[in-house]
Here is the input.
Amino acid sequence: MMTEDQSKVKRPKITVSRLARDADGIHKTAILRCNQKGWGVFLSRHEVQGVITEEYNELIEAVHSGDLEKVEDELIDLAVACLIGISSIESNGMQW
Here is the structure.
């Protein structure tokens, strides 16, 4: 929950070009991970949930470490897991 002081803070804006660069980085990392681990889809929604939960838990650890580089790395890993999950659904490869 935001405090009154936090709600008055002026947030810097994210640019469209920044989003594009970051999305491109996520895409490149997804290709790298698939090259490392294989191009097979997640076979079930439970597998998607398990991978995303694992990445989320690693993000929590990174946040508690205070290391922004680790936080960014884990955010990328989480985004990659989500992207592969979406691609798995869209490829009609899930068996259950």
Notes: The helical segments are 4-7, 16-37, 45-65, 68-90. The chain has one domain: 16-90.
